[in-house]
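#struct-help
A.M.: can someone run this one for me? Single chain, 204 residues.
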Amino acid sequence: MIQKNKLLSFYKENTIEAGCDEAGRGCLAGPVVAAAVILPPDFKHQVLNDSKQISEKKRYELRTEIEESALAFAVGIIDNNEIDKINILKASIMAMHKSLDQLKLRPEHIIIDGNKFIKYQEIPHQTIVKGDSKYYSIAAASILAKTYRDDIMHELDQQHPEYGWKQNKGYPTKKHRQAIKEYGTTPFHRMTFRLLNEQLSLEF
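D.P.: on it. Structure tokens below:
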């Protein structure tokens, strides 16, 4: 059996370090959700990894473990209306800033999944491509962001079951696009996104 590469506990040693990640950036509907997590410096876990590599059931189990183990964690949410106003990249970073605002412990350093970030207060940061598969705190943030966003999409699915959000979580699946074509949009759709493959075929 091939053992997976172990994730790293920190980027900067002897520092209170927060990991940040977001979920829902590529969706056609719903908010973008980010999380910030500060883990103990000696934190280790056999299963924790990028949320995309883990089953839905396991993600929720891990969420409980992360919240119990973390020194601090928080979630930031930016809705679809705000995404349409400022664009998805700015909204994703704003959601991360929102999550950092709510941490009960102030970080001395921030590590972020991806390659784009806007400086948060005067705290030094480092962007890391595929950081959610390299560092425990970013992987933990990816789990929280994903599961909290999934909870929101499950609730919205009860209002609009025809779009299949419980299954597709608002991502641009064939079923989701077909439902937009058939039923039109909801107040939760991102109107600045390409909602149909045949661009401009939505009638307003």
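A.M.: thanks! The beta strands are 17-23, 32-38, 72-78, 109-113, 125-128.
D.P.: also worth noting: The radius of gyration is 18 Å.
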